[in-house]
Amino acid sequence: MMTVLLDNGHGGLINGLYQTKGKQVRWKDNEVFYEGEFNRAIVNGIMQELTKLQIPYINLVPEHQDISLRTRVKRANNYAGIPCFYLSIHANAGGGAGAEFFTSPGDTKSDAIASRFGEAFQQEFPNDRLRTDYSDGDLDKEARFYVLTKTKMPAVLTESFFMDNYTEYKNYLSTSAGRMRIVDYHVAAIQRINNELFKKR
Length: 201
Ligand SMILES: [Zn+2]
Hints:
With 201 residues, this protein is α/β, with parallel strands linked by helices. The chain has a single domain (3-7, 21-99, 108-197), classed as Aminopeptidase. 43% of the residues lie in helices and 20% in strands. The chain contains 6 helices and 9 strands; from the N terminus they run βββββαβαββααβαα. A 5-stranded mixed β-sheet has the order 6-1-7-9-8, sandwiched between helices. Strands 2-3 form a two-stranded antiparallel sheet. Strands 4-5 form a two-stranded antiparallel ribbon. Strand 4 (24-26) and strand 5 form a beta hairpin. The longest helix is centred in the C-terminal third of the chain and has 22 residues, at 176-197. Zinc ion binds at residues 9-10, 23, 35, 90.
């Protein structure tokens, strides 16, 4: 049995105060989207489903504080000895649409895991874009890569939709129905990864 190491990117809300600089979008009417709150909601949804499916998981960041990337990686690497993979949950920004799936370079198991997420995303959202060109060069990527390169197990980071895309914000990121579908595609991918990539032959 494989264990999913779940990481929700950035900080959450503590007494209404967002714990992360940036990583938020203020829309008209003062509606604000906080990425770290979304990431936590998705991880919580994934945990509920994995509990039902009896697939083991660890929540690496149960806090609402914005835990440093170094600490996140350190926590993940405590599990390096068991069959597991690291999964970091994010929403994208920077002008664009659809989803992106990042892996640590040169690790074939990470690639196989990432393609399961890509396929599950396409199945759940057939009319949305699966971005395979990672060429928008935003500064954040380096930080994202840190958790992918320093973790000792296969590692994948999912970017589900763009928080600064109003259609995606309205249709998916800010609604419970949309969030449920984002949870569902992650869980569908995790089931396939568990069955196809971690079962002993
Ligand atoms: Zn993020």
